[in-house]
Amino acid sequence: MSSTATLQANRPKGSSSENSVEGPRRYLIGGNWKCNGLYDENVERINVFNGAGAIPSNVDVVLCVPYIHIPMALSLLRDDIEVGAQDCGNNTGDGAFTGQVGAHQLKDIGCTWVIIGHSERREGFGMAGEPEQLCAEKCKIALEKGLKVMFAIGEKKEEREAGTTMEVCAKQLEPLAAILNEEDWANVAIAYEPVWAIGTGLTATPEMAQDTHADIRNWVKEHVSEAVANAVRIQYGGSMKGANAVDLLKQPDIDGGLIGGASLQEDFFNVIRGVPQ
Ligand SMILES: O=C(CO)COP(=O)(O)O
Questions:
Q1: How many angstroms separate the CA atoms of 143 and 179, rounded?
Q2: For position 23, what pLDDT does the model report?
Q3: pLDDT tens string 225-242
Q4: Most buried pick, 10, 30, 94, 143, via CB within 10 A?
Q5: How many angstroms does the Cα of residue 6 sit away from the middle of ligand 1?
């Protein structure tokens, strides 16, 4: 494998995509490939993205590929799309943590973003799931190692039906607000992903999503600060695709998306081009 220096050679330098306290919030569109694709298939997907046309100047795009395909993505993917991971360990450095990938290693190889607290990891898919406190600690470690974080939160179907959506989101945000300082928030985006909408084809209506995004922003205003609330980007995730992106992205508190299934296809670019201009 080529050296890290080679992998990073054509990647954008610096962190152009952090939250800005001045001016409008930039849109943030993340792709989450989850555990999909053999090597050649994912090379082909990247080739498709490389030829998929321009990215509007008010959008930051990041693609979170499986760990094992990160070096390939760093080498081959167009340099106006950042490369991220879908999780990282809670270890702060090297050590005896079999199977773990540390934030320091992700940063070293050239990743700029990581998703933390995705509902699939909180749930655990048959293994121990990740509790709220652990997600917050992992976020803090990732930030300390120089990564930006898409911190995922969201309620389950029965919680929405019981009217406890915001209670659930607040419970997921509380340990985060307790552990982060004000500067940390410049490198955090909140990904609101209602669990019932993930991979189901059921999307929250734009109004429903907007209401929850506004509630989340208001929570940040009350529990962190008004400046952070104004600057923090809140992405929507859950069956978002080209066909519904425009209506979601024009909502005032929806600052982007975190896209699963549609990010495996060229339709990801319809989402990117769906941001208001
Ligand atoms: O989980 C998601 C992104 O993290 C959303 O997945 P889908 O877009 O496939 O519903």
A1: 11
A2: 76
A3: 999 999 999 999 999 999
A4: 30
A5: 31
Q: Check residue 181 and report its DSSP letter.
A: -
- Tens-digit pLDDT profile for residues 21-66: 777 999 999 999 999 999 999 999 999 999 999 999 999 999 999 9
Predicted complex ipTM: 0.99
Task: Render the burial of 36-51: b for 16+ CB within 10 Å, e for the rest.
Answer: bbeeeebbebbeebee
d(C-alpha 3, C-alpha 106), whole Å: 14
The mean pLDDT value for 197-202 works out to: 92
Q: Ligand 1: distance of its center to the CA of 134 in Å?
A: 22
Q: Which of 274, 271, 264, 208 is nearest to 48 (CA)?
A: 264
The sign of the CA dihedral 269, 201, 122, 215 is positive
pLDDT band at 14 (very low <50, low <70, confident <90, very high): very low
Q: Please give the Cα distance from 246 to 204 (Å, whole number).
A: 13
Which are the contacts of 17, defined by CB distance < 8 A and separation ≥ 6?
26, 28, 60, 62, 82, 112, 148
- Ligand 1 pocket (Cβ < 6 Å) reads 32, 118, 193, 198-199, 237-240, 258-262
Average pLDDT over residues 188-193: 98
Which residue has the CA at smallest separation from atom 8 of ligand 1? Answer: 260
Question: Which residue carries 């990732």 as its tokens?
Answer: 142
Pairing of β 233-236 and β 148-153:
unpaired
- pTM assigned to the model: 0.95
233 beta partners: 189
C-alpha 172/C-alpha 131 separation (Å) is: 9
Find the DSSP H helices in the chain. 4-8, 39-50, 70-76, 103-109, 119-123, 132-144, 157-161, 165-179, 206-223, 226-231, 242-249, 267-272
Mean pLDDT rounded to a whole number for the chain? 94
